[in-house]
Design the sequence.
């Protein structure tokens, strides 16, 4: 038994992938490497150099990109067969979510890209995404493909489609990014190559687009109960600047007064006593994150009011 276990372990390769996120000019951005089919920064865990997986991640990200990671959390573990370009290798990857402020990367192939360029149907800030005009007919065809003879299967597909895409009286749940992506993959709308529907964003290497979708949903969920948004802001900011970052991550426009009431009620920020004269018109007050809220409340998030529907 020990020999078989040792052989299994020796055939596994443990990789680490980083979804490194910033928000610049009101756009959520992720750091990628590579060209036509970019990848997330990825490295191998070296147990001889690093005591923990996270330390290994921080080390090789700094070495490869010159970026020192701040906030990091483990996102997901992927171990499906066929994930490696080497057919003889079983690649198990631990994906991490990292929040930084955008800066130049040392690696020439590293590039910051707009997150929604890979998931365009997730961004409602300028109205209903055009990509849904191609997605919804494909989803409806998939529902109808169950056939009238199998009413139970058709009903199950219809319910899944309605819940994920805000149809049939359902609302669009911004956190279901991974489930939406997986359905689109299942019906062939997005693929690992060029066979998917046109206009649904850029491809990524291996299953990295799926990891990016998982990270977006995780981060959107955390906005409700953790002050992670402040990891993406400068030390001081205006309330409008804070709102724009939350909107960039959630993919929806928020009602300004409702948002500010949520922030005020949560005690998340405090005024600095200074004004920003560059905002145009009346100078805006400058705020900073009030760290005492971490001791005062178990779930100090900004919330996400005003979810849209896809219809």
Sequence:
């Amino acid at each position: 038994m020990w020999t078989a276990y040792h052989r299994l372990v020796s055939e596994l390769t443990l990789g680490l992938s980083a979804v490194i996120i910033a928000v610049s000019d009101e756009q959520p951005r992720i750091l990628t490497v590579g060209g036509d089919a970019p990848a997330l920064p990825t490295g191998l865990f070296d147990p001889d150099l690093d005591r923990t997986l996270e330390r290994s991640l921080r080390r090789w990200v700094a070495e490869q990109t010159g970026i020192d990671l701040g906030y990091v959390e483990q996102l997901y573990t992927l171990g499906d067969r066929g994930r490696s370009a080497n057919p003889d290798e079983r690649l198990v990857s631990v994906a991490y979510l990292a929040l930084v402020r955008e800066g130049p990367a040392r690696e020439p192939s590293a590039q910051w890209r707009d997150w929604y360029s890979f998931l365009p149907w997730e961004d409602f800030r300028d109205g209903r995404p055009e990509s849904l005009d191609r997605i919804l007919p494909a989803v409806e065809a998939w529902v109808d493909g169950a056939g009238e003879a199998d009413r139970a299967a058709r009903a199950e597909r219809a319910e899944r489609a309605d819940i994920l895409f805000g149809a049939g009286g359902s609302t669009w749940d911004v956190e279901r990014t991974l489930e939406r992506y997986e359905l689109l993959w299942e019906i062939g709308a997005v693929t690992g190559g060029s066979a998917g529907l046109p206009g649904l964003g850029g491809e990524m290497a291996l299953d990295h687009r799926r990891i990016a979708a998982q990270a977006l949903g995780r981060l959107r969920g955390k906005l409700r109960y953790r002050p992670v948004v402040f990891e993406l802001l400068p030390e001081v900011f205006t309330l409008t600047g804070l709102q724009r970052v939350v909107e960039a991550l959630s993919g929806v426009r928020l009602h300004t007064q409702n948002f500010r009431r949520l922030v005020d009620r949560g005690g998340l920020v405090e005024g600095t006593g200074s004004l920003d004269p560059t905002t145009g018109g009346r100078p805006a007050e400058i705020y900073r994150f009030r760290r005492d809220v971490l001791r005062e409340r178990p779930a100090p998030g900004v919330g996400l009011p005003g979810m849209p529907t896809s219809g």
Notes: Confidence is low (pLDDT under 50) at residues 1-10, 305-311. DSSP finds nine helices and nine strands in the chain. The two ends are 57 Å apart (CA to CA).
